[in-house]
Amino acid sequence: MLVLVLDTATPAVTAALAEVGPSGYALLAQRAAVDGRAHGELLAPQIDAVLGEAGVKPRDLAAVVAGVGPGPFTGLRVGLMTAASLTMVLGIPAYGVCTLDALGLRTTGRALVATDARRREVYWAVYADGSPLTGPAVDKPADVAPRLAEFGVTTAVGEGAQKYADQLGLPVGDARFPDPGALVEIAAQRVREGAPSEPLTPLYLRRPDAVEPSARKPALSASER
Amino acid sequence: MTLKDEPLVLGIESSCDETGVGIVRGHTLLADALASSVDEHARFGGVVPEVASRAHLQALVPTLHRALDEAGVTLADIDAIAVTAGPGLAGALLVGVAGAKGLALAAEKPIYGVNHLAAHVAVDTLEHGPLPEPAIALLVSGGHSSLLRVDDLARGVTPLGATIDDAAGEAFDKVARLLGMPFPGGPPIDKAARNGDPLAITFPRGLTAPKDLVEHRFDFSFSGLKTAVARWVEARERSGEPVPVDDVAASFQDAVCDVLTMKAIDACRTQGIDTLVIGGGVAANSRLKAMAAERAAKYGITVRVPRPKLCTDNGAMVAALGAHLVAAGNAPSKLDFPADSAMPLTLVAAVGESLGQPHESGLAGTSR
Ligand SMILES: [Zn+2]
Predict the structure, then answer these.
(1) Closest CB to B50 among A33, A47, A210
(2) So what EC number does this one have (chain B) (predicted)?
(3) What are chain A's domains?
(4) ipTM, interface predicted TM-score of the complex
């Protein structure tokens, strides 16, 4: 079964084509350009490129697997909107995977996954031999650090972990961005079973910035009042 | 087989708070589905970009389904996809652009990333048929106030003037708030103004003094008007007198419409053009339409204003422009075209990197 894999929750704009078999999967083509401000430009041509490289037509796809974040909103929405419209046209199911889970899948022991949430914060979760031990959260690295001991975390991966290594105080592995193989591996069972399509709801973890307007400012100067 | 001059085009609009999907065949409107997040913005007194973007992501697929059902067509039938590429709110635009690219990829259709303002002009063809060219277009909404010359809509338009501060619709929103009316402010002010005296208060007409006309003949300014209304209302409140809301609304509305129509007619006359198209949300204002018709008639100028639902942001306008571009033989956009919050009016459709982007995108660098 041919599966299109997308993730736009980090600066790595990721598109891949995978073949999911009865007991495993193979990546047939993949692209991951790193540009945190160009998801909207890069993703569609990359999808076109991975399909073209493998000689696959969109109508040959059996499912789309998409990283649902958490991640910076604007880029994240590009991937999820693209996945939603692709699956709508093709009439195939969409499956969501937490982007942090994809980064955590290949870790061993107790590991921290942290991606860059901008505003000097990280999206993070803790993993035990690749399985999530906590749900995804967004916090300042200095507030994450004291909690790591309580989970017995000894290593970290992700761009956020690299960026704030000094504050987190952990040895950091090489993996910075989610691997499309890990994304498809997490969703493979759902693909094989033909599980129902899922709404691709972004893990925003933050409320929109919006302030209700304050009381009217006086329009007359003090001397005019 | 569809005739090339009657292309079947699906258009997507997401530049502000309306998620629109329209389907047209040539100049015939087949579907105009809309979802709006306006209620979510009301308590903030203006559109909150992140709230709008989140709403677009949720609304686009259901709105696509509604439009396709309404038109009774499938994506396989469609000749091309059009989508607003700019100008507008960057994050909001990106949702529509990503959705459109997904459709184009999956259905293997050409895509046109089009200019929102040119689409406001093109939508009139759905109501009144082909646009005589050249024409003058006055586009007024909460996001834009522009005066344009349209020689060939398929090749871009020539900006004559624009607001130097607030958009006309923004002034309506702010004055409405001042008078305790809900957001958006256009409809309640229009309604109150019907019971008021437009000559009760003399509010300033921005950029109409002889010295302003030298450099800003076709530009607008509504910030001073908004402040003048605020000062007048406040002075009344301080003196303990009741505020004559209907008179303030009518006098304010007349000041806005006076400047808009005066400059639009002036543009027609100085350029020797006898067609004026008015579009954008403020074009739904009853006083603006009446005043424009009255003044235009004196000079033999024909005023074309689409019905209110086509004036406000919608997908049909995007589809209408897309159909015009397909019929004119314009090349589609490349798949890497950006959502461009500051897309210039001279660009009627985005090109895409492989052909070079003549404008520096506000979202991303252009070379990689
Ligand atoms: Zn508009």
Answers:
(1) A210
(2) 2.3.1.234
(3) 2-99+178-193 (3.30.420.40), 107-168 (3.30.420.200)
(4) 0.95
